């Protein structure tokens, strides 16, 4: 086979629930959830190695929620939720590109998503190729989704953009406030009210996220990871990483490697092991 459809886009699970009880979604991949009736809030649950989640986000009927697991949906009264777990390289790219998680989206900005989700949920017995094609079509539709959350104040949005672009070189909130032309106290007050966490905490979370991605590459030493993520050295990286995630970088790297190996086929495991013999 020259091309493996499911490695690019696949449907891994379907949850179709009419419920008033909280729903916790687990599993590796991208969860896409449609609230067809009622209202709910969406939040990320605690996950090993994950940072504390932001406050829950409200979702109204017709809205969508995108995010990783564990994703907790809490209906406010009787609500209907259709949730699909998508796996493969294409869903992973969309997940990595989300500006926030969970990401609440307005259904009218991707009008074909609801129909595609319904077809996928009703065609679990279809061929893997057909499902993969529909999953990919759904991802293309979701690429146009706009956030249902109210826009951030310009100062908070500018701070987030600066942090994400320059986290490796920023010395802290004081430098960030100087770059934005405001006082440190004003920046902290506006940012915390809009985002739910102080800018210094957000900067640390962005650095830890970047470190997690680099730790997946075994060739990067802790000193290299620290320098690329804005930490003063490997020791400081280890202290902050352990405080934020409950694991040392080495422990997190080992756990990520075990998870990756568990997802490989027998043939891929043999090939992976032979590379390091």
Automatic annotation (TrEMBL):
Statement: the UniProt record of this protein carries the keyword Transcription: yes
SUPFAM superfamilies xref list: Homeodomain-like
Signal peptide stretch: none
Pfam (any one): HTH_18
Superkingdom of origin: Bacteria
Keywords, in A-Z order: DNA-binding, Transcription, Transcription regulation
One example GO MF annotation: sequence-specific DNA binding
Residues in HTH araC/xylS-type domain copies: 157-255
PROSITE patterns: HTH_ARAC_FAMILY_1 (PS00041), HTH_ARAC_FAMILY_2 (PS01124)
The keyword Transcription belongs to this UniProt entry's keyword annotation: yes
Protein name from the UniProt record: Helix-turn-helix transcriptional regulator
Organism, scientific name: Candidatus Faecalibacterium faecigallinarum
């Amino acid at each position: 086979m020259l091309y493996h459809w499911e490695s690019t886009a696949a449907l891994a699970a379907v949850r179709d629930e009419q419920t008033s009880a909280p729903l916790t979604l687990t599993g590796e991949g991208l969860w896409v959830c449609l609230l067809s009736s009622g209202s709910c809030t969406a939040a990320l649950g605690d996950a090993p190695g994950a940072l504390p989640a932001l406050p829950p986000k409200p979702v109204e009927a017709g809205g969508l929620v995108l995010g990783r697991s564990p994703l907790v949906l809490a209906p406010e009264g009787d609500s209907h939720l259709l949730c699909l777990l998508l796996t493969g390289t294409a869903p992973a790219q969309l997940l990595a590109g989300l500006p926030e998680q969970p990401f609440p989206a307005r259904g009218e900005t991707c009008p074909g998503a609801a129909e595609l989700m319904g077809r996928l949920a009703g065609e679990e017995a279809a061929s893997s190729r057909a499902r993969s094609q529909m999953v990919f079509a759904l991802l293309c539709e979701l690429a146009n989704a706009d956030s249902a959350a109210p826009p951030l104040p310009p100062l908070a949005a500018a701070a987030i953009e600066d942090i994400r672009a320059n986290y490796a070189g920023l010395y802290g909130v004081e430098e960030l406030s100087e770059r934005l032309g405001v006082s440190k106290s004003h920046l902290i007050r506006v940012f915390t009210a809009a985002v739910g966490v102080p800018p210094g905490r957000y900067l640390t979370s962005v650095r830890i996220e970047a470190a997690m991605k680099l730790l997946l590459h075994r060739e990067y030493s802790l000193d290299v990871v620290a320098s690329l993520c804005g930490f003063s050295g490997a020791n400081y990286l280890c202290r902050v990483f352990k405080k934020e995630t409950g694991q040392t970088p080495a422990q997190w790297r080992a756990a990520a490697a075990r998870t990756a190996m568990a997802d490989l086929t027998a043939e891929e495991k043999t090939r992976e092991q032979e590379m390091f013999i």
